[in-house]
Amino acid sequence: MENKENKNRKFGIVLRYTKSFGTYAFSYFFNAGISLLILPVLSHYLSKEDYGVIALFTAAQTLILPFLSMGIQLSMGVDFFKKPGDEFKSYFNTAFKTILSSFLFFTVLAFIFSGFISSRLHTSWIFSVLLPFCVLSSLSADIYLTYLRNTNKAVKFVLFSICRTAFEIGLAVLLVVKFSMGWQGRLYAAVAAAVVILIIVVYFFYRNRLLRWTGFSVKTSREVIKHSLPFIPERISIFFFTAADRFFLERYTSTNEVGLYNMAYNVASLIMMVIISLSAVYVPSVYKFLSEDNKRKALRSAYIFIGVCFICCLGMFIVIPVFFHYIIDQKFLQGQVYAYYLVISMFFWAVTQALYPFLMFHKKNYIIMAFAITGSLLSIGLNLLLTPRLFTWGAIIANGSSYFALTMFYVVYVYFWAKKNTTGNLSIS
């Protein structure tokens, strides 16, 4: 009788996680579907150079994000599971206002250096000034989605995520296709969406008493910054791993080549939609298992996550040629071979995503920082060495090598942690 009850309980857990994954997966795959539908349309109306400018603007946002956020959003996601309701709300109020203060500082800097920024991004000065605002809106949306995920509000998560994507993409199509605004139309759509999204998110925070007009603890703000600062190098490493190569290519090749490379990256990034959808269920479950001191279940979840990601990456080798031959404009066909190698890099990224929560939960912030700094320095060194000589292939080799090295850091650390903190072997059984 007891065995039957255990089986029913396990089946209930599996069913609950399957349902959760299905809900979040629907959101990510629907958003991916919108992006896929729009990709061939925009590829006919935007030139390689247009894609290059858009890629540089997006890369600039990735660079600014870690400094503006100071890594606070990561601490907020973890502390939700560690602080009781009212204490977390007070903490959230101070943490978010700390981010707002940082936003104002970077807006002033962007205005002062708008001439230099616009010359590097090949845009007008207004977009340089609006860069911090776009970053703030995206950051706020991510904090909101993390909160919805942690509170199991899957339906709201899906609705917000889908509407957010649909509004921006729809406006981009209107401005690029109907009004022939080129890269300007795509960036104006991003700015307009940022305004709407920020208004909605801030309203939700106030309505749920997460954000208030009054109340700000300087002591809490200092503690938040102190605990979050080690994440800045980790967030900067995201720039070096996912965006810095665009700037190296712009420096040593041309904006056209940046656009071609970015199209290949966009197609390869379809696998990221799968990985992120899996993470939406995987990460909270690992935090839950670790909070219950159930290390073996947490490790088992990591093995399954990595295995599923590997299978999905193999599937991308079938999807990629279909996209380049039948879906997007033929002027981007040369980028097909780039996409294969970028998918391999993204599998290494998936492995780090599987192991990252173990370090986060145990507040190994300085270990994360050390890994991030080492990986970033390696990425910079390889790009400086290879991109001027091999151009796009140099950037791809630098990208893949850096991801592989970072993955090995995480694998070795978590392996020895698991060996020390669990009994028996570390197999999935």
Describe the structure.
This protein is mainly alpha-helical. The protein is 86% helix and 0% strand. The chain has 17 helices and no strands. The protein has helices spanning 2-45, 48-69, 72-79, 85-112, 114-121, 125-150, 154-178, 182-207, 218-228, 231-242, 244-252, 255-268, 270-291, 295-327, 336-361, 365-390, 392-421. The longest helix is centred in the first third of the chain and has 44 residues, at 2-45.
Write the layout of secondary structure elements.
Elements: H1 2-45, H2 48-69, H3 72-79, H4 85-112, H5 114-121, H6 125-150, H7 154-178, H8 182-207, H9 218-228, H10 231-242, H11 244-252, H12 255-268, H13 270-291, H14 295-327, H15 336-361, H16 365-390, H17 392-421
Helix pairs in contact: 1-7, 1-13, 2-6, 2-8, 2-10, 2-11, 2-12, 3-4, 3-9, 4-6, 4-9, 5-6, 6-8, 7-8, 10-16, 11-12, 11-16, 12-15, 13-14, 13-15, 14-15, 15-17, 16-17
Report a brief summary of the structure:
Helices cover 86% and strands 0% of the residues.
Which keywords apply here?
0% strand; globular; mainly alpha; 429 residues
Q: Which of globular, elongated, flat, extended, rod-shaped describes the shape?
A: globular
Q: Into which percentage range does the β-strand content fall?
A: under 5%
How many beta-strand segments? 0
Indicate the percent of residues in helices.
over 70%
Quaternary structure: single chain
- What is the string of SSEs from the N terminus onward? HHHHHHHHHHHHHHHHH
Distance between the termini: 24 Å
